[in-house]
Specification:
The chain is mainly α. The protein has 2 domains: about 140 residues, no CATH class; about 120 residues, no CATH class. Helix content is about 70%, strand content about 0%. The protein is built from 10 helices and no strands.
Length: about 325
């Protein structure tokens, strides 16, 4: 755990700023979850506390992760400061507006019925646009200012590209929500694609692949795998999760609920899960080998104790013959 904690630590001012914003958002999401459960409030609906919960936790985790990415890149203090401030404030403002509307009992998304609803939705759109530009810049940096470790480089680049995919899915959600309001004249309780497709499902999957990729890259180093095995584990993790993301998009576009797995498209999820399982097995085997190696080295070292002490005898000590 110490090695993992050390690998995830943040040092740059911009990274720590993003971590502070992330802690605020995660704390907010957690508090709202406690309130929802304590008072038995509904999870579904356009004005449910579900939105402050999901947006707070998701945005907080994303900002913290991007802070870690910035921490790994070659230093560029001024640009990092601007990017950190931009991402932190845009993320906090978006979630704050969503939270405010939830407590007011007013829909935060696709609410074109009142002037204040339109204003809030426009402000949220601006915050999301600024956040998107910041994420695009961060992604560009990962390709222009490469990281030293190949496994981390692969994990970060692939993860940021998947995050950008999540932004694209977000645009799809907005189009579906706007279409619903134009047809029905009301805010949707849940934006749907087709009969039962839930586009927020692939949206969430896309935003959180990067954490798994980075964790896999870090664990391969902690476990002590060979360079080729490290690359193989990260590639399997990226490939497997990408297939799961593709499946979630196909599932949603086909108008099927996330739980509706009895159709041919599920083969993508099965293959993806298989690749993730293979990566997990390889990590576990590597960990067991390292543990066995440490035990063997410890057991092979001779330990002799000096008479009357609990300290190991030095190698230069000679045995004292018994007078008996």
């Amino acid at each position: 755990m110490r090695a993992l904690s050390s690998a995830l630590s943040l040092h740059k001012p911009a990274s720590r700023r993003l971590r502070r914003a992330a802690i605020i958002l995660i704390a907010s999401g957690t508090i709202h979850l406690v309130v929802l459960l304590a008072f038995g409030l509904p999870w579904a609906g356009a004005v449910s506390l579900r939105k402050p919960i999901t947006f707070g936790l998701s945005m907080g985790l994303l900002l913290w992760t991007v802070g870690w990415v910035i921490d790994q890149l070659p230093p560029k203090p001024r640009s990092e400061k601007v990017l950190g401030v931009t991402l932190a404030w845009s993320g906090v403002i978006e979630v704050a507006l969503i939270t405010m509307q939830a407590w007011r009992g007013v829909p935060s998304h696709f609410n074109y019925s009142t002037v204040d609803g339109i204003v809030v939705f426009v402000l949220m759109g601006i915050a999301v646009a600024v956040l998107s530009v910041g994420l695009l810049v961060a992604t560009w940096w990962t390709f222009r200012r490469p990281l030293a470790q190949p496994t981390v480089r692969l994990a970060v680049r692939a993860g940021m590209l998947v995050v950008l995919t999540g932004l694209g899915i977000g645009e799809w959600i907005i189009e579906l929500g706007n279409d619903f309001f134009e047809r029905v004249g009301a805010v949707p309780d849940q934006v749907l694609a087709g009969e039962a497709g839930v586009p927020t499902f692939p949206h969430a999957v896309a935003f959180h692949g990067i954490q798994l990729f980075i964790l896999a890259a870090i664990l391969t180093g902690i476990v002590g795998l060979a360079a080729k095995d490290r690359q193989r584990v990260v590639r399997q993790t990226v490939g497997g999760y990408s297939l799961l993301l593709l499946w979630s998009v196909v599932q949603t576009a086909a108008g099927r609920a996330p739980s509706d797995v009895l159709w041919p498209g599920t083969v993508l999820a099965v293959i993806g899960a298989g690749l993730l399982g293979a990566a997990a097995v390889r990590l576990f085997v590597g960990w067991r080998r390292s543990e066995t190696s440490v035990r063997s080295e410890t057991a092979s070292e001779p330990v002799r104790y000096q008479t009357g002490t609990l300290e190991p005898a030095r190698e230069t000590d000679t045995a004292v013959p018994s007078v008996l």
